[in-house]
Design a protein that fits this description.
With about 500 residues, the protein is mainly α. The chain has 20 helices and no strands.
């Protein structure tokens, strides 16, 4: 048998790409814009609602990370413990998240490559592999929360018949069914996510209507900044849940699902414009959904004795006890919304895992093989978690805190490379961010990193004890800080990246 015989696990592409040319959505020429601009000029074509519709999709997939079970738990805890007082922070945290995601989209559109691929070629092999490990750890931590969230919802909907471990297996199987829809085109899969987001919006809006939160206090909470020592932990959680490391990598790949020639400046400007609009719309919707959840639990439990005991597992039952049944019991409304959040976020997590693994390792595997590997990395530890913590909600909440910390400490390994790359002239050309936006972006990154550093410090102070464990934490903390400093130093001192590919040049 010849040595170059086609292997069934290998993709036929010679180079790893986010999407095959045949999978991309065709957007050029669908509107007669040839008479309005120079194809090779700097100006983008005139605005078109039809074009906006064709570009709509990646931003909504990206917004799922703002609505996953981890965010919902942060919302309900913020509402129950801090009332309406942190709504302003939720608004600004969403705005910060939008800024980061727009930079990620810009990088993908301009270069025609995604963040994981660029990191592999920019950094030395050891640093690239370490970035990949850190990103995978963050993804696994997020995936455990998302799968457990789905499993909790299934347990509620089956009146306790399905244990958590069974819900985990069903969620894993469902994820492959949904991914199968990708064979029918990117737009079909994006439509599925639109349905799941709509289910979340309807479920939590229904809860909002059932509980009737105070509209005056809601508006004051959005407009007037309020913060006190008793709500700092919830405030940190609100900000920390918004920036998801894997989501930064994901968005730079999702925008490549549209057929864009990065060598044509006008077309690139057009794509950035439409992606910015649809991302802003998507995150505005995610903000409203998060607002519904926060205000429902603020109205129901703020100032009560059980406020600090509420988590994903018991939240629906507490609402049921508080507000009773109705046409549809609020317990099941909550479970349906939670299930939609968990299912949608596990699918996007699988997507992100494929791009991250393929980009960092330059794997040319078939998509089903990469999906299987990615799913296994998360499902195996999630099953272990479900078997151990099925009967203990308090222990499950404690584990959730550990997973939040795990994701928080990984944030610099997505933000620093992103900000470094989008400011480089030899990579981004005329689309590099200017001094003002660069300053704002680094200040935002510093703020997010500092907030999550505070969360880590508080968590270590409360949870870590003993000489051995403390010594291990100190060693890992020193190595962690050293790597972050290295990434920042490299972004400052390296003046040219030297990896600009011919197909990513902007003319």
């Amino acid at each position: 048998m010849p040595s170059d015989q086609h292997q069934p696990l290998l993709a036929s592409d010679e180079q790893e790409t986010a999407y095959d040319p045949t999978e991309k959505v065709h957007v050029v020429g669908v509107v007669d814009d040839q008479d309005h601009f120079d194809e090779y000029g700097d100006k983008s074509p005139p605005f078109s609602w039809r074009k906006l519709w064709l570009f709509t999709g990646p931003g909504f997939l990206m917004s799922i990370a703002f609505l996953d079970p981890g965010n919902l738990e942060g919302d309900l805890q913020a509402g129950a413990i801090a009332g309406y007082s942190l709504l302003w922070l939720l608004l600004w945290a969403t705005a910060i998240g939008l800024l980061i995601q727009l930079l990620s989209a810009r990088l993908g559109v301009v270069t025609g490559r995604h963040l994981a691929e660029l990191c592999r070629e920019e950094y030395p092999n050891w640093a690239g592999k370490l970035l990949w490990i850190m990103t995978e750890l963050a993804l696994i931590g997020a995936d455990i929360q998302e799968v457990i969230g789905s499993a909790i919802a299934l347990k509620i909907l089956t009146i306790g018949f399905l244990p958590l471990w069974a819900g985990v297996l069903i969620t894993a199987f469902d994820c492959f069914i949904f991914l199968f829809l990708e064979n029918y085109g990117v737009r079909k899969l994006e439509a599925l996510f639109a349905v799941l987001i709509a289910v979340m919006a309807i479920s939590f809006a229904w809860m909002f209507g059932e509980t009737k939160p105070n509209m005056k206090e809601l508006l004051v909470g959005i407009v007037v900044p309020q913060l006190n020592s008793k709500t700092i932990q919830q405030a940190v959680g609100v900000v920390g849940c918004i920036i998801m490391p894997h989501n930064v990598f994901l968005h730079s790949a999702l925008v490549q699902s549209r057929e864009i020639d990065p060598r044509k400046t006008g077309r690139v400007r057009e794509a950035i414009k439409y992606y910015s609009i649809e991302s802003a719309i998507a995150l505005a919707i995610s903000f409203i959904i998060n607002l519904f959840v926060t205000t429902v639990f603020a109205k129901a439990f703020f100032g009560t004795a059980i406020a600090d005991t509420i988590g994903l597992g018991n939240a629906g039952q507490f609402l049921e006890d508080k507000f009773g049944g109705g046409v549809v019991p609020i317990l099941y409304i909550w479970a349906v919304g939670l299930l939609a959040a968990g299912q949608s976020s596990t699918i996007t997590g699988t997507y992100a895992g494929q791009f991250i693994m393929g980009g960092f390792l330059d794997l040319r595997l078939k998509k089903w093989a990469r999906a299987l590997i990615t799913r296994s990395c998360a499902i195996v530890p999630t099953l272990i978690v479900a078997l151990i913590f099925d009967s203990s909600e308090d222990t499950l909440d404690s584990l959730n805190e550990w997973l939040n910390v795990l994701q928080s400490v990984q944030i610099p390994f997505a933000l620093i490379p992103l900000l470094c790359l989008v400011a480089k002239d030899d990579l981004m050309g005329v689309f590099k961010i200017g001094p003002f936006l660069k300053t704002i972006s680094w200040l935002v990154a510093a703020l997010v990193i500092a907030i999550n550093g505070y969360l880590l410090q508080q968590f270590i102070a409360e949870e870590v004890s003993g000489v051995v464990l403390t010594s291990i934490v100190i060693i890992f903390t020193a190595a962690y800080v050293a790597f972050v400093v290295y990434l920042i130093w490299r972004s400052i001192t390296v003046s040219t990246f030297g990896f600009l590919k011919p197909n990513s040049q902007v003319i």
